[in-house]
Fold this sequence. Notes:
This protein is mostly beta strands. The chain contains 1 helix and 14 strands; from the N terminus they run βββββββββββαβββ.
Amino acid sequence: MTATGYGAAGYLPLTGGEVTGDLTVDGTTYVSGLNAYGPVEARSSLLVQGGEFALDVTDSAATALASAGTIATAGNTTETVAPTANVTGVIMAAPDNWGATFVLINASSFTITMAALGTSRVANGVACVVPAGSAMQFIWNQVTSLWYPA
């Protein structure tokens, strides 16, 4: 099995409850003889040699998001949301690992504005706006306990 990806991240397609083979990202084999057993959830990750490796599993439909809503990040690398109006005061939950990266996909025609810094856990607080029909990547800093837009 070959995973494709970019940089230090890669994606491993899963089609069932078991995956076996070599984990190769951008031509470099990181793990030989990989065995992973299901069930695998839509948002899953696999610990590989001390690092997080995202599994590209078919995601469920976009979830609704309301003003002052919280986006779950623990164990997730991506979340697709579809607010039905412009939303404000949005909070990003803390992740479950140091140096986590997270991609928020806005699959709607409306904007998503984060809450103030002390509430949202996003470094630029209310200045962080995810435009309609776009995605934004965030990186977690454990020292500051904040998400930083990439």
